[in-house]
Task: inverse folding
C-alpha cells in the first residue's frame, strides 16, 4: 500500500529565483515581475456604548383633579430644571403624561426619559433627583446602547486595523528574505463578525442588581475582521555611493 500523500502546503511567499535586473542607472528599489507575497491578517476591536437612556416615573392620586395634576407638575418642573442646570439639552429630554379616573379619585402619571452621552453627568443627575425627591420618583436602571454612527466607526476601525496587521506581516516576511515590500496589488475583506452590544430599540434584560460598570460591559460591542492581501516584492535596497 502506497503511503498517504502529504497534506498540501500553503505558499506564503513566492520569490523569483532569476529576477530581472533593474534598469541601468536607476537607484533605489525596483519591483520585479512575478514576485509577490500573499498574506492574511485579522483584528478584533471593541467599543463601549456611547449612549444611555434613563427613564423616571412619578405619579399622584387625589380626590381633586387639580391636586393630582399640581403634585406631578411641581416635580416635573424640578426635574427639568435640575437637568438643564447640569447641561442636559432640551432635545434629550422627553416627558409623557397620562391622566385618568380611578374609582372616585383622579390619577396623574408621568414618565421622563433622558438621553445621555456623558455617563458621569448621568450619574450626577440621577443622584441629585434621588436625594431631593426620594421615593416620590422611581428611577429605572440605565439602558446603555450604541448609535449607528458608533457601530459604523467600529466596523471601519477593525477593517483598517486588520489591513495594517496584514501589511506588517508581509513586511516581516520580506525582511526575512532580505527583500523590500512593494505596493499592494490586492486587498480583500474575507470575513467580518460582530457580537454583543445593544441598539436603542433593543432593551436589555439585565438584573437590577448589576453595577454600572457591569451594565456597560454587557453592552460593549465587538467586531472582528480578516483580510487577504497581495503585495509586490521589490529587490534589495541599493545604496548609491556618494562622491565626495
Result:
Amino acid at each position: 500500500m502506497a503511503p498517504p500523500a502529504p497534506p498540501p502546503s500553503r505558499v506564503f511567499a513566492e520569490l523569483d529565483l532569476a529576477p530581472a535586473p533593474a534598469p541601468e542607472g536607476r537607484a533605489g528599489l525596483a519591483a520585479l515581475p512575478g514576485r509577490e507575497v500573499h498574506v492574511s491578517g485579522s483584528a478584533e476591536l471593541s467599543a463601549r456604548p456611547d449612549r444611555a437612556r434613563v427613564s423616571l416615573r412619578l405619579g399622584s392620586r387625589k380626590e381633586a383633579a387639580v391636586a393630582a395634576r399640581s403634585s406631578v407638575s411641581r416635580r416635573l418642573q424640578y426635574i427639568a430644571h435640575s437637568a438643564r442646570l447640569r447641561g442636559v439639552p432640551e432635545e434629550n429630554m422627553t416627558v409623557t403624561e397620562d391622566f385618568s379616573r380611578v374609582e372616585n379619585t383622579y390619577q396623574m402619571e408621568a414618565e421622563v426619559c433622558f438621553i445621555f452621552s456623558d455617563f458621569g453627568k448621568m450619574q450626577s443627575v440621577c443622584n441629585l433627583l434621588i436625594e431631593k425627591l426620594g421615593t416620590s420618583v422611581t428611577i429605572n436602571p440605565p439602558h446603555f446602547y450604541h448609535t449607528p454612527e458608533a457601530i459604523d466607526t467600529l466596523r471601519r476601525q477593525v477593517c483598517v486595523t486588520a489591513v495594517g496587521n496584514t501589511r506588517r506581516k508581509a513586511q516581516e516576511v520580506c525582511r526575512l528574505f532580505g527583500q523590500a515590500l512593494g505596493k499592494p496589488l490586492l486587498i480583500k475583506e474575507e470575513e467580518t463578525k460582530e457580537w454583543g452590544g445593544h441598539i436603542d430599540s433593543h432593551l436589555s434584560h439585565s438584573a437590577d442588581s448589576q453595577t454600572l460598570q457591569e451594565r456597560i460591559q454587557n453592552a460593549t460591542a465587538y467586531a472582528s475582521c480578516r483580510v487577504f492581501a497581495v503585495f509586490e516584492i521589490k529587490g534589495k535596497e541599493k545604496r548609491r555611493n556618494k562622491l565626495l
